[in-house]
Design a protein that fits this description.
The protein is of the alpha/beta class and 300 residues long. The protein has 14 helices and 5 strands.
């Protein structure tokens, strides 16, 4: 039975997850699932490529691509491709469209006497509660264990996610050794990722609109058998699709920026869990840092 055709790339990602997990009536072969995942991982390329190019790169018949599109609810490949093309056009205007949505809500206090500050606080608090509702204690515990036993922890968060990555890296480096924030000036991600080996962990942070370099870093680490921990905004995020170790933080709001209050709380919860698990090792590491900070009179 064919699915109802998704109307957005986000809906297509959700459909992919449901089919993969056996939670949808539509059934796809492992090969078709792999083809669909590659298309979702490379949306810009999918929007530009012909059906023959996609078939050749995936070593399958053109007719198989057509049947895949039909099983997803489209009349054929052109409808599926148009979904990717439409998404690409929308992403090009992401920030200006968000501002338009924000302005369409009307001035704060117009009818409910809510100030702009109160509106932002309400939206951020809603995101915090959404994150709390979906919080998985067992997955969180598994992530803590993974980060504690990791030989080395690399953290990547680019563009708007950089402050979150820096915040996590700064405090994590105070309680355990071999922590590196990658993607900084003077380095390429390729050089930073080249040091990773099995037994290491990459913590990747990205939210809508996702940064391609961060998604690519996750894909490379997966191929190198390096564990990935994703901090992202939805289960259908391209970061979450490459790992079972992920934390979901809501960023809902009609703003041109990504509301990050929930993400900060998520990271603070992660740091608290880590320091609790590390115990005396964390204290010893902190004592070292405090000694050097005092000698250099860093803090006043």
């Amino acid at each position: 039975m064919a699915a109802q055709a998704p109307t957005s790339l986000e809906e297509l990602r959700h459909l992919y997850i449901d089919i993969r997990e056996g939670e949808h009536t539509t059934r796809l072969t492992d090969r078709n699932l792999a083809v669909l995942k590659r298309m979702l991982d490379e949306p810009n390329e999918t929007a530009a490529k012909s059906i023959s190019e996609i078939a050749r790169e995936n070593d399958i018949n053109i007719s198989s691509i057509t049947r895949l599109a039909q099983k997803l609810g489209f009349d054929g490949f052109p409808g599926l491709k148009e979904l990717f093309r439409s998404s690409l056009r929308q992403r090009k205007n992401f920030y200006s469209e968000q501002v338009k949505k924000f302005l369409q809500r009307g001035p704060a206090g117009h009818d409910d006497k809510t100030s702009l500050l109160e509106r932002v606080i309400q939206d951020e608090w809603s995101n915090v509660m959404l994150m709390a509702d979906s919080f998985d204690e067992q997955r969180f515990a598994d992530i803590i264990k993974l980060m504690v036993k990791a030989r080395r922890v690399l953290i990547v968060g680019l563009r708007s996610s950089y402050p979150l990555a820096h915040y996590l890296g700064f405090y994590l480096n105070m309680i355990r050794d071999r922590v590196t924030l990658i993607g900084q000036a003077g380095h390429t991600l390729a050089e930073d990722l080249s040091v990773l080996r099995p037994g290491d962990v990459l913590v990747a942070i990205s939210v809508t609109p996702y940064t391609k370099d961060t998604v690519d870093a996750c894909r490379i680490c997966k191929h190198q058998a390096v564990d990935i921990i994703a901090i992202t905004d939805t289960l259908s995020s391209p970061l979450a699709s490459d790992t079972d170790h992920f934390l979901i933080t809501s960023i809902e709001g009609d703003y041109f920026f990504s509301p990050i209050a929930a993400a900060v709380i998520c990271i603070e919860t992660l740091l608290s869990g880590l320091v609790k698990q590390l115990g005396t090792k964390a204290i010893q590491r902190l004592n070292q840092a405090e000694t050097i900070l005092e000698q250099m009179e860093t803090e006043i």
